[in-house]
């Protein structure tokens, strides 16, 4: 075999590797699954960068080795390096200066109606005396807004009324509750699973988070009531939130215009729910809104029904109980996913694909009254309160 032949073989192998690696990357980020539904320039950029990078490497390998082609080779090498460098940014569509999820004072439901031992409290009640009565050092509770009615009902059922104060049952939201239990400022928090960042923060602080599943809930996707689409597939949700699909006409609504995909801040329970659904697929960074007024009340439950140019083009997400009971928006509707409604029955039988456990979380193995409370929550009475509140029991 001559040296020339050997060099041709080497170049061919490197070329095949470059294109094969590019194809493997695009497959891993589901571009082949969404080949018919990538409908926007931002969503196409990762594909363009892979083609540009592999094409530049191929051209460098196969062009003549003469002085006149040195500038061209250098330019192609720059294109290849830029393609590789910009690829992570392109995956997240993160091209906008200072673009982030707008955070501020969010409109929230009135939680005082669920406060334990308050007059006219809406907390679920047992039809009999609780088998557990806690006295002495009462566990300090905190958690997600959507779960406050559940753990408020637990406290009202088992805490000694004379020893109770509202400082024992707080509701600061998922992100703050995790921070507090990691810092040792709460005994039990009631939340969805932790995000990667929250687990990393716990590890850095030397906290040993213990997760006890106590109930199940559906993670739901919502659109405006006038949106004609009632059913969406799991894959299309992934396409929307990874930035591949940006227009409603791709999903069959020709007059819908651009999809406005709202998100929640990092560390919130619903954002962590979206991250679980997306798996390892990068979530697209928030894109500029057509108009700043669409931010509205800074509540996703309200934002999802905004109108723009005569249509309701938004999509968002929440948990079923919060969206239907605690902070319902009559101008929004929940979507079926893969043909299944997020009903209690479908959560139980597993037909609805986005049903997940929620947890009682402690820093270390629960002890004393905290252990007694968690054990009781997993008893028939505790699970009854979960059911009566409107969630799905785990037992």
Any key phrases for this structure?
395 residues; alpha/beta; two-stranded parallel sheet; elongated
Overall pLDDT = 92
Q: Termini distance?
A: 71 Å
Number of helices: 13
Largest sheet: 8 strands, mixed
Helix content: 25-40%
Unreliable parts: none
Q: What structural class should be given to the helix and strand makeup?
A: alpha/beta
Descriptive overview:
By secondary structure, the chain is an alpha/beta fold. The chain is 39% helix and 12% strand. The protein contains 13 helices and 10 strands. Strands 1, 2, 3, 5, 6, 7, 9 and 10 form an 8-stranded mixed β-sheet that branches. Helix 2 packs antiparallel against helix 3 and helix 4 packs across helix 13. It is elongated, with a radius of gyration of 26 Å. The model has no long low-confidence stretch (mean pLDDT 92).
Could you provide a short overview of the structure?
The protein is an alpha/beta fold. The protein has 13 helices and ten strands.
Mind sketching the topology for me?
Layout: H1 3-28, H2 41-62, H3 70-92, E1 141-143, H4 148-158, H5 174-182, E2 188-191, H6 196-205, E3 209-224, E4 231-232, H7 234-241, E5 260-261, H8 269-278, H9 300-303, E6 314-319, H10 320-326, E7 332-334, E8 336-337, H11 344-349, E9 355-363, H12 368-377, H13 380-389, E10 392-393
Helix pairs in contact: 1-2, 2-3, 4-13, 5-6
């Amino acid at each position: 075999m001559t040296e020339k032949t050997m060099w041709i073989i080497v170049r061919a192998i490197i070329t095949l590797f470059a294109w094969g690696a590019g194809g493997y990357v695009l497959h891993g980020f589901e571009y082949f699954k969404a080949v018919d539904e990538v409908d926007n320039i931002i969503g196409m950029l990762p594909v363009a960068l892979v083609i540009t990078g592999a094409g530049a490497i191929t051209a460098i390998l196969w062009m003549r080795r003469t002085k006149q082609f040195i500038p061209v080779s250098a330019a192609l090498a720059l294109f290849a390096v830029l393609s590789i460098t910009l690829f992570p940014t392109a995956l997240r569509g993160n091209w906008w200066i200072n673009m982030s999820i707008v955070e501020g004072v969010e409109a929230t439901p009135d939680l005082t109606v669920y406060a334990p031992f308050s007059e006219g409290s809406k907390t679920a009640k047992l039809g009999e005396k609780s088998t557990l009565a806690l006295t002495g050092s009462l566990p300090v509770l905190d958690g997600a807004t959507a779960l406050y009615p559940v753990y408020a009902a637990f406290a009202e059922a088992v805490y000694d009324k004379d020893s109770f104060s509202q400082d024992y049952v707080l509701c600061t939201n998922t992100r703050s509750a995790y921070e507090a239990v990691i810092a040792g400022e709460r005994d039990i928090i009631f939340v969805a699973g932790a995000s990667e960042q929250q687990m990393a923060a716990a590890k850095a602080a030397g906290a040993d988070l213990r997760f006890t599943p106590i109930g199940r809930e559906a993670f739901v996707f919502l659109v405006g009531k006038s949106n004609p689409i009632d059913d969406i597939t799991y894959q299309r949700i992934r396409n929307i939130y990874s930035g591949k699909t940006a227009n409603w006409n791709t999903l069959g609504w020709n007059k819908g215009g651009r999809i406005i995909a709202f998100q929640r801040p990092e560390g919130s329970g619903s954002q962590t729910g979206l991250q679980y659904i997306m798996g390892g697929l990068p979530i697209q960074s928030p894109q500029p809104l057509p108009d700043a007024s669409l931010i509205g009340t800074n509540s996703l439950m309200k934002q999802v029904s905004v109108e723009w140019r005569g249509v309701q083009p938004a999509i968002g997400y929440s948990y079923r109980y919060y969206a239907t009971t605690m902070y319902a928006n009559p101008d929004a509707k929940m979507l079926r996913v893969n043909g299944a409604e997020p009903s209690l029955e479908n959560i139980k039988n597993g037909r609805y694909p986005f049903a997940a456990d929620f947890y009682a979380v402690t820093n270390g193995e629960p002890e004393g009254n905290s252990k007694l409370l968690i054990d009781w929550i997993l008893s028939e009475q505790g699970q009854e309160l979960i059911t009566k509140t409107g969630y799905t029991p785990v037992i």
